[in-house]
Automatic annotation (TrEMBL):
Residue numbers spanned by region Disordered: 391-415
GO BP: any one term: cell division
SHS2 domain sequence ranges: 7-194
Alphabetical list of Gene3D superfamilies matching this protein: 3.30.1490.110, 3.30.420.40
SMART domains reported in the protein's UniProt record: FtsA (SM00842)
Source organism (scientific name): Exiguobacterium aestuarii
Keyword rRNA processing: no
Protein name as catalogued: Cell division protein FtsA
Function: Cell division protein that is involved in the assembly of the Z ring. May serve as a membrane anchor for the Z ring.
Pfam families: FtsA, SHS2_FTSA
Amino acid sequence: MEANGYVAALDIGTSEIKLVVGELLGGTLNILAEGCAPSAGVKRGAVVDIDKTVQAIKQAVEHAETSLGDQIRSVYVAIEGEHIQIAPCHGIASVKREDQEITDADVMEVINSAQVMRLPDEMSVIDVIPSSFTVDQQTGVVDPRGMLGYRLEMHGKMVTGSKTILHSIRRSIERAGLHLEGFILGNLALGMSAASVDEIDLGIGLVDVGHEKTTVSVFYRGDLVYSYILPVGGDHMTRDLVYKLNCKYQDAKVAKEEYGLALEEMADGTEGFSYTNINGEVAFEPQSEISYVLEARIEEMFTLMLNKVQKVGVPMLNGGYLLCGGAAALPGIQELATRIMGQKTRLYQPSSIGVRHPKYATAVGVLKYVLMSDHHVSKSQLEKPEVRYETLNTKQEPTDTHVGENEYETDQESKKGFSRLMEKLFGV
């Protein structure tokens, strides 16, 4: 966290780099500045050109610093993508004090002990998110601090990611002149900040429609239980129009953003897009035809997601669905999603002035997650550098992440209370 009390959150997207700076005043998030720059060095959440990514980060930072009137020195970074994996984990530690009273140090030791496990060679631990504790024989403990015991256990989730991708992101941030405070799981932070406690408890699907991918995350009984990445996003909608209109990519992008609708029936019969096709001929495309192409792609996308969600095992998403992401700003997409999903769907966009656009949802989610959790210490300072990881040459489907059925079928009340406690303690 910055010395003067504000926090900066960075979202490194394929289309744009978003930076949001804010502070917490009286329990309310106050956005102080935002910065945005075109991203040319990122593909589907992975840095493919460090130099271009560094320049984009610098542009976003300079934009935000102009509004902030101060220098931004450190950032929290939203991490997501096909390389992210989430799995159950378990840690065990002995209580060190002679009087056997459990302290913060014991809690951190048992969290760190969960990281000593077998991992694929190319993977690295990003975070450990506790769910509940066991003190000796007492299970379902929310806060073990102050209790007496000899043996402390922790049940939770481990978030891992590609060493190569994480290194490239870290290197890009450092070369941009920033200190990396820590990685925050983007869909977890976004879900916890965008949805209410009741929605997360009853079940809700968070759909983040990005440039090259769409991420659907299912929250149920106060926990993230499933995450799936569909390799289709706003870029595919634009490219569909490139073939339909026989035009340049930039012209298709203008057609989508200025005339496109997610529902053909909403189109105005008198509206249309005039352009010059690749043959040099002046052409005109009605809004209805543009919207027809977009609706077909979006309908396919939502149908694929619905099929995945229905196989998760969650009885019912009573909270419905939340839409966010830059491509979710397309008019009519909320109505089309409701029609396909068969449940209420609403568009989420941050309410603060300057970031009232779905594309800022992840950055604001990370910002709110960090500030509301009183996350004053960076993850790098909490982690023990001497921890060693065993490796195992195994492969796991990166785009389809089940957290595990047992993770949300037991100790539910403890998990909800403890997740809030750990946010206060360590921001996890």
